Amino acid sequence: MKEIIDRRSIRKYKSDAVDKKDIEIIIKAGILAPSAKNRQPWKYIVYTDEPKNHLLDEMEKGLIRERDGKQLLPKSQNGLPDAFHTLKIMREAPVLIIVENTNGQSPYKSIDADGRITEICDILSIGASIQNILLAATELGYGTLWIANTCFAYDELVDFIGISGQLVGAISLGYSDEHPNPRPRKSVEEIIEYRV
Ligand SMILES: Cc1cc2nc3c(=O)[nH]c(=O)nc-3n(C[C@H](O)[C@H](O)[C@H](O)COP(=O)(O)O)c2cc1C
User: Which of 7, 82, 103, 167 could disulfide-link 41, Cβ–Cβ 3.0 to 4.6 Å?
Assistant: First the structure.
């Protein structure tokens, strides 16, 4: 419970490097998550230093294309300023972990109902794995941010990274340079319905 309560989304990082051994411990927590049919459909690609800078240059190209050129997510344009802000955070964090659904496909491809059910189960599994990662990082004294704003540069990032599955998002990791208050939560009364 301590890590569940203490975890925050961290958007300011110190430049100090993260120990590779800690990255392994943190990702090992991810593989302990439950997964649908034990498919374990996750892959984590760890970026630091120059490779991370190049990756984020590609993401920036995608965000600029989405803003000034061909819009692949036209109904989500109001999320773009936040995506540029997230990009800044990703540049600052010393480590960026790309999250791949090895069983998934591009959101620009159509999907039937069976495929959607499988995708929902795989994404839920990956969500559980990501949360394990965030909590393990919190226990080791690191800050993290769960990132989905990679979606605006989906094709650019997939091409650059060489992903054959589905790009789910990313996790930034590093020592926190802020102490945010807890974000508001719905009350338990609001979200539980008893039928007893
Ligand atoms: C699936 C998912 C995607 C998210 N994507 C982003 C993102 O791209 N950029 C960002 O700044 N925060 C992102 N967040 C963080 C949320 O904004 C944050 O979890 C929420 O506001 C609650 O704050 P807390 O994590 O500090 O409790 C994401 C969180 C989740 C679960």
Answer: 103
